[in-house]
Amino acid sequence: MDKMDDFFILKSSVVSHDTLSSGSVSWQSPSNIALVKYWGKHGEQLPQNASISFTLNNCHTKTTLHYAKKESKGFDFEVYLDGKREEGFEPKIVSFFKRVEKYIPFIHEYSFKIETSNSFPHSSGIASSASGMSALSLCLMDMERLLNPHLIDAHFFFKKASFLSRLGSGSACRSIEGPLIVWGGHKEIEHSSDLFGTQYPYEIHANFLEYQDTILLVDKGEKQVSSTVGHGLMHGHAFADARFSQAYDNLSQMKTIFKSGDLDAFIALVESEALTLHAMMMTSHPYFILMKPKTLEIINHIWAYREETGSKVCFTLDAGANVHVLYPKNEKEEIQLFIEKELSKYCQNGQYINDCVGNGAKKL
Length: 364
Ligand code: DP6
Description:
Order of helices and strands: HEEEEEEHEHHEEEHHHHEEHEE
CATH architecture of the domain at 212-356: 2-Layer Sandwich
Number of helices: 9
Structural class: alpha+beta
CATH topology of the domain at 212-356: Alpha-Beta Plaits
Bound molecules: ligand DP6
Strand content: 15-25%
């Protein structure tokens, strides 16, 4: 076991929990969009390669965790989405609780009501697992802090929240802080770790400040293949090793790009990462395609627009058909016009979400 893993257990075992009977805590956590993608994991939610993401600002989950001390042992909780009981979420929470119980043993001693809501529409194809697991982990850390205030400083609080989030959903560990978060050990990025997300610690050129992300909702249906299954298909994948070392090199290159502000290099790297992610899906066994014809229409329109205008707009994709349109703030007006006029027709019901880079979770 990693030394840090031990450290989290050790700290949690000295928690004295005799003071907290019932109450509630609330957090708002953002979604994030990866520039270098996490695709492939091993062990207990450990990434096969380091990834980096922009934390978003407008797409978020708000979660209130109500707790009440109980006598019996074992997990006891209910989940509500927008005020309605959502039993469909509960198996995922059970596996999360099983993974985190050794780090926050007090969860056995409380019954919980988890109330959650997202700022983005249901089944928009925007994964709520990153923002949702982050918000829940922050609520649980808040409880741990209430139980043991003198042990937990701000630095430890966010680090352990990210550590717990990772055990719920890998990319969730990048949804605690902002604006740029690295997850996965990388020799050239100090303090980077496979166990939790860390803030990108180096110079970031002004070109990347307040970077914009408009999410085009192409397909709001349920994905045919979940991310978790997709990650699994990287085991024994013919291109796995090449992909993991490519991601590693791309993160090194990203460091140079963030410093220089070279937007052409940024575009080339980010689009290649998105297409490589989908190429991995298309070349796994079983193979699958999550892009839709409209995804490709949008990509071609973005390329044509860039060619015509010299714009620095580009796209990225996550594990679905939606397109994240990324652009610098100084192009906001033109690009939003371009999206409305030329891209919104490819979105389901013309729907898209304007977002931008944000600074992380907030206590409510
Ligand atoms: C394509 O974090 O959703 O968005 O760890 O199984 O919950 P689990 O997977 P998840 O995978 C996200 C994959 C991705 C790329 C990324 O965000 O880096």
